[in-house]
Amino acid sequence: MRALLVVNPKATTTSGRTRDVLIHALRSDLKLEVAQTQYRGHARDLAREAVEDGAVDLVVALGGDGTVNEAVNGLLSHGPGEKVPRLAVVPGGSTNVFARALGLPNDPVEATGALLNALEGRRERPIGLGKAMTEGLPDRWFTFTAGLGFDAGVVGRVEEQRRAGRKSTHALYVTQALRHFVTQREQRRSGPVSLEMAGLGPVPGLALAIVSNTSPWTFLGNRPVYPSPLASFDADLDVFGITRMTAFGTARTVRQILRSHGPSSDGAPSSGPSGKHVVSYHDVRHFTLVSEEPAPFQVDGDHLGSRSRVSFTGVRRALRVIV
Known about the structure:
By secondary structure, this protein is α+β, with helices and mostly antiparallel strands. It is 31% helix and 35% strand.
């Protein structure tokens, strides 16, 4: 199989020596070309070129969720289709939500072994993805989450800290979330975001709106976090929101999220967070988030600035992934 390995040399949890070992292992089973990313968006450009050239059957992303998201957007730059190469992932970031949601080991060496076994057994699965659309800007595919409002503001704060030299850790996210909560006093009473969905009147006052394409939403260390436990790669999108972020109410909702879990082994559903100020919808194909004023926006943990209106679509069987 002809494959392109897209490597983020700044990936948090892989050293140069580890990457060399992984490349050697992959070359034992693949006709492998290796490309290192050199700038933000480079993984997208490399994957897009691979599609347009028709030179590879498989794109392997070695990096964190940001690298994976860029590769996916490159692969689907002309939309889903049979000619789009398959995707494989070797986790190299600090959290690796997408890889772990697929059931892959979080260790890059173990994940490479799992990938080689999947290739030998010809195991792959089609997955659904989310697509975020803003008028006047390119569409953006996402693999596990998007958000408008509070959570995206936290992501923006973390990115500022990383640009200042801080290492991306779960403690950094928690610290920035607490600081953002303290500074967003107005949104504690009522947020600026409204949810618009066919067959439903507008749902106003959201301080936080999380869109999930799968579950869990993220991880705190080894602990999965489930605001939308039923979200799945085999369904459309889930929406979770909070309309009032008081200290007591938010703490209660956070406890519920941390205690939630995905469907059990027999497929029984899990109940997610509930309460007076909680908004939750499952398996929605189309909807729009509208903000009274530009609000922070993120996809797959990548802060994209501020948006006033973003429409979302769930696209089933959008991509084939080696698992």
